[in-house]
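Submission sheet (multi-component)
Chains listed below:
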Amino acid sequence: MLYREAGQFKTSYRADQQIFPILQDRIGMLVLGFVALVGVPLVASEYWLTAILIPLLVFSLAAIGLNILTGYAGQLSLGTAAFMAVGAVATYNFQLRVPGIPILVSFLLGGGTAAAVGAVFGLPSLRIKGFYLAVATLAAQFFIPWLLVKVSWFSNDSASGVITTQPVEILGFTFDTPLRKYLFALVVVSVLALVAKNLVRSHIGRAWMAVRDMDVAAEVIGIRIVRTKLVAFAVSSFYCGIAGALYAFAYLGSVETDGFNLDLSFRILFMIIIGGVGSILGSFLGAAFITLLPILLDVALTEGATALGLQLPSGMTSMVQLVVFGALIIFFLIVEPLGLARLWQIAKEKLRLWPFPH
Amino acid sequence: MQFFFEVLIGGLLAGVMYSLVALGFVLIYKASGVFNFAQGSMVFFAALTYVGLQEKFGLPGWAVFGLTLAVMVVLGIAIERVVLRPLVNQPQITLFMATIGLAFFIEGLAQVIWGTQVRRLDLGLQDEPIAMLMDRFNMLVSKFDVVAAVVAGLLVAVLAVFFNRTRIGRALRAVADDHQAALAVGIPLKQIWAIVWSVAGFVALVAGLMWGARNGVQFALTFVALKALPVLILGGFESVLGAIVGGLIIGASEKLAEVYLGPHLGGGIEGWFAYVMALLFLLVRPEGLFGEKHIDRV
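Outcome: structure written.
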């Protein structure tokens, strides 16, 4: 009854092409934005901010990055974490070595560096596809962190290889408390998500999807494959790079190259599979799911064990996590290959008709 | 020069171990077009099950081997039933991602059942140099590696006979060629897939035993199994011969690079050298050494 676009007439092309054409969606987004910007800071505890909300935002951004490449352009990548590492380390170094550089510029340059590296590792995609490409991106995943650790210049010759990030300061305002870091991450991620949403609706995004659906056909109708694929790699890596920088600057407060391992790449891949391949909304849903699931599982297992009076062996929870992750991936691929985003879409379509059957 | 040969032989023999894992990938890819990312996890699962059963019941090696094989066959059939059958006719990339999920599932399951500690696996083989070669040519060649090579050779021979001479093997090749045509002449597709996954389970068991005996049965085995991927790229996904040759090339060049290039680059290049080499190789020959050339049509 409430969610219906009846009576909302579009009288201009502009109105017809907005991101959220339905009034209720726009109201919903405004409410969501208001809650995230004002409501959350009022109620959220420090634990919620540092352990859940900030990583959720960071991983959402990384998932958007991977989704652009895998979901929209159809190039499977297992090297997401490596590009995040490039972004984090590059941002740190720009901040360290260029005197007086504003942090946002460092972020952009860090993302740009990741984009350049991504484009280089995207070159094989011009010749190969599918699994071959997936394995090729593994080369990036193993080579880049090795390089970042081996060349100690990148970590400013720190002995442990772990470097503390500089404070995030914009126009004299320092984002130091968890709450301020959360707001910083929120703004960065929102802006970039908006850009991504528009990008995939533009001619670039449509070219990506054409290449994904059938590259030979796309070439025949005049899409330049080389440029399209490389742009996809560059944009995706840019997003991953910024996500990596946020991961270091807003979440951990340090750059630890070892943290950007294959496991992280897989986690981000799982986010887009569960959230929805080829959907910006899905990136957020998937990131939320994968971030919350371990915490919930952990609580459930410890509670369950104490309730039954059992002593769980150490490391058991992480193993159960693996099992649950694996099972969920298979479940989603079988039952709903388009993920949570598709479920949301179905729910919306049902809502439109409710309470009538047709 | 003698040192060079020592490194070369060591590398070739290590490459055989990679080939053992790669064989499992090729088998499944040939028969069902699925790129089975979970092969490494199956290797780990098999090795862990073997050790676990041995600890628990203290049976002789051949009995444990039989039991583990039974477990692997059950696992293979279960995978076919639960994962593959519902995903028939999905794009290959979906199947690939499903096997990534499967890999996580199997890794977790193995450790939930058998625990997470590192275990020793004793096959009664010593990792010591062969005395004869040591005396004559002053070369260090591990006995263990030679045995592994012989096992791999035997395995390939058995598989070759199985594929070319038996009824089931012919059916497998028919399925690999064309699913629908195979169905049309009355080959039971579901059974065939269950068989392929069981055979892959068997190969995983053999590989798991060799790797486990050498490095200990631990989680890191799954990373070793990842090394089979560049091997596949080099050899081509569709070729058993490619898996062997690719393994040899990767093993040898990796060891040589570690010894001769490593010191100039700061060491530790073994972790990525194989991948980068495979990547560069792909640029020249995208379908691998023995892979089938794909022609795209609209």
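Remark: The CA atoms of residues 141 and 304 of chain A lie 38 Å apart.
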